Every structure is written in structure tokens, then in C-alpha cells.
Amino acid sequence: MTNINNIFSTKIEFLKGVGPKKAELLNKELGIFTFGELIAHFPFRHEDRTQFYRVGDLHEEMLYVQVKGKLLRKEVVGSGRSKRLVAYLKDETGMLELVWFKGINWLDKQIKDGVSYVVFGKPQRFGHKWSITHPEMEVITAETKVEGGLMPVYHTSDKMKTKGLDSKGVSKLTRALLENTYDQIQETLPEYILKRFHFLSKKLAVAYAHFPKDPTLLADANARLKFEELFFMQMKLIASRMGKKTEKFRGQVFKNIPTLNLFYKEHLPFDLTNAQKRVIREVFKDMTSGYQMNRLLQGDVGSGKTIVAFICMLIALDNEAQSCIMAPTEILAQQHYEGLKEHAEKIGVTIDLLTGSTKAKKRREIDETLRDGSLKIIVGTHALIEAKVDFKNLGLCVIDEQHRFGVAQRAALWKKTSVAAPHILVMTATPIPRTLAMTVYGDLDVSVIDELPAGRKPIVTSHRTDANRLRVFGFIKEEIAKGRQAYIVYPLIEESEKLDYNNLMDGYESICRAFPGVPISIVHGRMKPEDKDYEMQRFVKGETKIMVATTVIEVGVNVPNASVMVIENSEKFGLAQLHQLRGRVGRGAEQSYCILMTGKKLSKDGKFRIETMCRTNNGFEIADADLKLRGPGDIEGTQQSGILNLKFADLGRDAQVLQEARALAEQILEEDPDLEKEEHAVIRRQQARFAKKETNWSRIS
Ligand code: ADP
Ligand code: MG
């Protein structure tokens, strides 16, 4: 057994200079309980204290600078909230203003006219004047030695600062701790990896991540720690995926395909795209492998995922197994049901629909036919994972629009089978960047439909301000006159928010006035589900020409005759949502349009989003832009994945590193799945440390 109880598990109060009070603060404010955790509390940036600048050389892009000079005079000016202490520091090239709004009285006593100081802070320019607000000050004396290297800046809290645990305080403790324990920091990556990538040793990387002598060493330290972080994450994800391919997760083997062949030959309504064919081959391979399939199917809106799902269900059907397809909303389940029924009827396959509003009698019938196995394909909502539904032999479960279903719900489905774990196909139209998919869905294999069916015309997207509204309405009228339909969507941040609702209703009224005689539907979150459904169906059937709605129509709804999507207050939507909404049009043969309405003034982010939408129709490009804009934290599915705990890596920027780390993890686990080779002992030890930490955490929470 490896010994992982070492000096780094020592309680933090035993560190010289800490004591019970500071220990408590470190526990409570930063979650630091041990030596090891203090060392793992890395600075979030470094300040360059090797360089001094002259006032005359300052420019606006500089982040933090050090300036040496003599304090000429100081004064307290202003009153109330704008009361401030201003001091004037002069060097041989110019004058720098120093300003404080807080701690004025104390500072006024500390700093003295005629004394020379080193000041440190972020320079700002006001006209010809340079100033630094709340600079750090140090008196220049005979002993002032320039602190070498880059100075680490640590996160602390206000409470900590009052007890001497500001960034400098933390830095001091960390430095002392590192000096004493440096030799005991153990390597966590095999020698051959260090060599291959020219990485620093773990010891050096940790030391330089805190106290680098220069920016190059800091970058080297970061590169290693970043790689290590992603590598161990991928090791865990890949190992868990491999674990599923053992006895416990055997999958049914689906080898026969007579019905599928018949469908292919006689009833396929169109030629499949190459991407669709490829995905079907990938799925078929999984289904014949003897192991449970866990596959994510990514395909942009309109790329034709439904037919792929149907074909996969036929494979199950040809092998005496049942399939279900789950949709996130009732309307979507209904649409899937109708779409699939059309295909199914042609080949004499029965299919049914189960949702929350299925009547009791029908419900009993479905329960029975699922149990005796006579019903082969069922479409539904969450109702499907309720305890009472019982399949004779569930062989395939398709989950549409994955982001609405949690991991727990996916797992609940697995239990509903008597033979083996069902094959799982998760379909999503929210393209998440590949880097993120590899992490969030590290336990899933990924297939991509990266090609739209032939003959689709790319949607034309434009940006209009409220001042153009009449012209926009005029355009909608022309489209309706050509026999087409239009969506007008309003933002809804919170379904219950009164403001949003009023906004929608105002909009609806003005639209009714602008389009006299045109039948108009409205759908929003406050309506009863059956009313919503009714209105939706009217629009689907073409009885109404305009659909005024909140984002309830966002996902999946298919009305090929709709050619215009107007999005009101579009600056309020996120990129993923805008892309989803736009995907509601462009589903037929006609040219479609998306019009993004905004006010006159836009924030920087808002402008970026609108420009991105106007520039491209490609979901992956949009997803990448989204990742750059927001970081991974806000993207669906990331919460459970642990990627938010990344300290060094940034998935938006480190795609390359992630690829390398993943490839390496895959290679290692393929060659040495139990990490038995001597050279991999270091990896095993590190995993044991992680495991220990996790159990500790689960005990606490
Ligand atoms: P999504 O991937 O967004 O779920 P759908 O499966 O709803 O897309 O397909 C969108 C539309 O494209 C549907 O009307 C469908 O019948 C049609 N479609 C799918 N695949 C093809 C194809 N290979 N050629 C032509 N039309 C197709
Ligand atoms: Mg769909």
C-alpha cells in the first residue's frame, strides 16, 4: 500500500506562525485545513516587482507598475463620499498622483512629505495626469532590497486581512511551508511523460507556481500543472467509461436488421446525408459490440437527428427489444410521436405516446403492452421514468435534448430493464464545443452530424433596432402574403416575472393592431398546458400565421412552413438560446430569415453576441464563441462535471492541452488498464490521494 499520510496531511494550526485563530480563519474562509491544502492554494496572479517604471514611461495598457519617487506634498480634498487623500509623487520625468478613499486618517499619519517611496498599483490616465488609486507604499531606506522575482497575489477575505492574513501574509506562510517541505513533494507523473513534454518536476512546478523568478518559469510551471490537472481528470473519466464495459454493463447484441433493411429499401423518405449514415454505422457497431452503448449524438438544429433515432429504434425492434424516446416537453413528445408514427405506420410498427396528460385508461393500456412486450416503441416525457412504467425488455433509450435531463434521470432509466442495461443515445442540438464535450461527457462516446440535408438554404440573419420596426412588420406581411408563417419571440428570464409578461402582452397587442385580419397565436408560460398545446397545434397546422411566444418554443418544434423568426430584445438572450430559436426556421425549402431586434445601445457582450449570430449559422462556431464569452461555468452540464474546479486549465483556451492529455490517458489505460507497470506507480499514488480527499469531503458534507 502506498503511504499517503505524510507531512502534507498535517493540520494547518501546526504551521509556525499560524496558531488557532489564524487556523480557524484559514479553515472557514478558504477551506484550508492542512499543509497540503495551503500549498495547493495557488496565487491567482503575479505582480512584476523586478521592474521599475518612470512616470514619463507609463502608458495605458500597463496593468500594475512600480514607481520610485519622492513625496512632495499631500492633502485631504472633497467631503462625504468623495473625501479622499491625495499625495504627489515626483521622479525625474514627471508627477504621479496617489489617491486614497479609505483609511484616510491612518494613512495621513503614516506617509510623510519629503520621503522617498516605492509605490505599486495600476496606473490610470486623466488627461495629462497619471494617477494610482490605493497604491501600495514602501519607504525606500538603505535596507530596501528589491524583492526578486514575481510576487504572488492570493485570494483572501476581508476578515482575513484584518488578522494579518492579507495576500502578503499568506505568501509568507506559504514560502516558509514550501521551504520546509519542498523535498517531500512527490512526483505525480511518470518520468517518460516529463521527458516527452519537457515538463518541470512537480516540486519545481509547485514552487514556481507560487514564487517564480521570472515569467518564463511561471509559464513552465503553469504548463505542467495544467496538463497534470487535465490528465488526471481524463484518466478518471476514461477509466469510468471503460469500467462500464465490464460484466456489469454488458449490452444486448442487436445483430438482425430485416425491418431496417425493408425500411431502407422502400420507405426512406429522402437520401440520408453522409453524416447521418456515418452516425448510424457508429451506433450499429456499438449495438453489436456486446457492451452497453453510451453515445452522445450532437447535431445542429435541423440536421436530421430524428430519423437517425428512428433507425436505431428499428435495430432494437428487429432484435426483440423495446425502445423509448424521451423529450423534455409535452409538445416535443407529441411532435416526435407524430413524426415517428408516419414512418412506423409504413412498416406496420405500432408506437405510442406517454406523457403527464395521458388519460388513466390509455395509461393502463400502455403499461400493459410495455410489460408484455407487444408495444415496441414508446415516445414520452419525464412520465416515462416514473416508477410504474415497466418494460419487458428495454433495449434502447433515446434522450432528446439532453440538457434538460440530469444524470440522475439517465441512471433511473437504466434500472428499467430485465435483460441488460439498455443502450443509451443522448441527442443534443446544443452543440457544445468539442473540448467541453470531452470533459463534460467524458464517459460518453461522441458522434457528430456535421452536415445539413442537401438543398437547405442558410438562414439569413440580420440586426435591426426598434426604429426599424415598421419595416420589419412590412417584411413579415410580405412573407405571410407568400403563404409563410412567422415567429415573434420575447425574452423570458423568469417565467413568473411580471415585467416580462407585461412586455409580451404589450407586444402581442401592438402586433394584433399591426396585422389586422391575420390570425395570431400566443403561447407563454402562464398558460395551462392544454391551452398552450392547442395554440401550438393551430400554428403547426397553419391556421394561425404568426406565433407570438416566449422561449417556450425554443426546443425542437418543427414547422417547416415558418420562414421568419423575429427575436425581440435579442440582446437579452444567450448565444446558445439565440441559435436554438433561429433553428425553428429554415426547416423547409424556402429561404428563411432571422431578425434580431435590439434597442439602440448595446453592451459589449450584447454586441458580440449579435455580431456572432449575423456572421455564422454554424452551431459549433457559436458554441466556441459562447465559451470564450462566458467561460465554461454557465454552459449546461458543466456543473456536475468537476470542470469548475479547474485551477490551472481554461477549457476555452486550452483545447490543445486537453487533447494531448486525453490522448495520453487513453493510451496509458489501453496499454496498462490497472496501472500495474512500475512506471505508472506515481499515477496510482496520485489517484489514491484524490480518492482519499473525496472520501474526506463526502464525510463532511
Ligand atoms: P433535428 O436534428 O433538429 O432534430 P429533425 O430530425 O427534426 O432535425 O429534421 C429536420 C427536418 O429535416 C425534418 O423535416 C426531416 O424530415 C428533414 N430531414 C432529415 N434528414 C434529412 C435528409 N437526409 N434529407 C432531407 N431532409 C431531411
Ligand atoms: Mg429534434
Automatic annotation (TrEMBL):
**Which InterPro entries does the annotation name?**
ATP-dep_DNA_helicase_RecG, DEAD/DEAH_box_helicase_dom, Helicase_ATP-bd, Helicase_C-like, NA-bd_OB-fold, P-loop_NTPase, RecG/Mfd, RecG_dom3_C
- In terms of domain of life, where is this protein from? Bacteria
What lineage does UniProt assign to this protein's organism? Bacteria, Pseudomonadati, Bacteroidota, Cytophagia, Cytophagales
PANTHER family in alphabetical order? ATP-DEPENDENT DNA HELICASE HOMOLOG RECG, CHLOROPLASTIC (PTHR47964:SF1)
- Name the Pfam families on file: DEAD, Helicase_C, RecG_dom3_C, RecG_wedge
EC number(s) on file:
5.6.2.4
Q: Which family does it belong to?
A: Belongs to the helicase family. RecG subfamily.
Please report the stretch or stretches of sequence annotated as the Helicase ATP-binding domain. 286-449
**What PROSITE patterns does this protein's entry cite?**
HELICASE_ATP_BIND_1 (PS51192), HELICASE_CTER (PS51194)
Q: Per its record, how is this protein called by name?
A: ATP-dependent DNA helicase RecG
- Tell me the function of this protein: Plays a critical role in recombination and DNA repair. Helps process Holliday junction intermediates to mature products by catalyzing branch migration. Has replication fork regression activity, unwinds stalled or blocked replication forks to make a HJ that can be resolved. Has a DNA unwinding activity characteristic of a DNA helicase with 3'-5' polarity.
Species of provenance? Algivirga pacifica
Q: What class of enzyme is it?
A: isomerase
Molecular function GO terms recorded: helicase activity
Domain (Helicase C-terminal): give its ranges.
468-633
Alphabetized UniProt keyword annotations: ATP-binding, DNA damage, DNA recombination, DNA repair, DNA-binding, Helicase, Hydrolase, Isomerase, Nucleotide-binding
Q: Please write the reaction equations for the catalytic activity of this protein.
A: Couples ATP hydrolysis with the unwinding of duplex DNA by translocating in the 3'-5' direction; ATP + H2O = ADP + phosphate + H(+)
